[in-house]
Amino acid sequence: AKGEEQLAGRKVLVIGGTQFMGRHTVSFLLEQGADVWVLNRGKTRNPFQQQQVKVLKCDRMNEQKKFRRILQHGKEDEDVPAESPKVKWHAVIDFVCFRRKGIEDILSASGCIKHYVFISSDSVFMACERSKIESYQSKSGLEEDHALPINNKKSKREAKERNYYQYEYGGGKLDCELCLQENSDRFDRYTILRLPDVIGPFDNLGSFMNLQKAILANETIGTRAVPDVSPDVHQISLCYAPDVARVVLLLLLKGNHVFKNVFHIACTEKPTIPEYVNMVAEAVGVGCKQDPELETELVSVDFGPISNEKAKKILQWQPTPLQEAICSTVNWYKDEENVQYTSHLVDSSSSSSSSSGE
Question: Does the predicted TM-score (pTM) go above 0.85?
Answer without folding.
Answer: yes
